[in-house]
Specification:
about 100 residues, about 25% helix, Alpha-Beta Plaits, globular, alpha+beta
Length: about 100
């Protein structure tokens, strides 16, 4: 079992908006059967630590490429992704194996 975490560095003041969009996108993928339950967290500027950060995470039994031939990406999720892109400075993804 794997923990997958996508981390977004947002433009200043956009963390809450990105968090809401990313949550919606994750729910679209979940409802399409492509993700497990998701969690979203963020630090806009009110907490200590790194600011303007959004973290989306979920678990998966296997790590599959989203561009695999048999995968049908939900169009609505891609539309939400297009809304997110102008609000972020960078993003990365982390894969960790869960100790069960």
């Amino acid at each position: 079992m794997y923990l997958i975490r996508r981390i977004y560095k947002t433009k200043p003041g956009e963390a809450a908006k990105v968090a809401r969009l990313v949550k919606r996108q994750g729910e679209i993928y979940r409802d399409a059967g492509q993700r497990s339950e998701i969690t979203v967290s963020y630090n806009g500027a009110t907490l200590p630590g790194e600011q303007n950060v959004v973290v989306l995470q979920w678990t998966a039994d296997v790590i599959d490429s989203p561009s695999r031939p048999d995968n049908k990406l939900p169009a609505e999720a891609l539309e939400v992704g297009a809304e997110v892109r102008p609000l972020i400075e960078s993003q990365r993804i982390e894969f960790m194996e869960l100790l069960i």
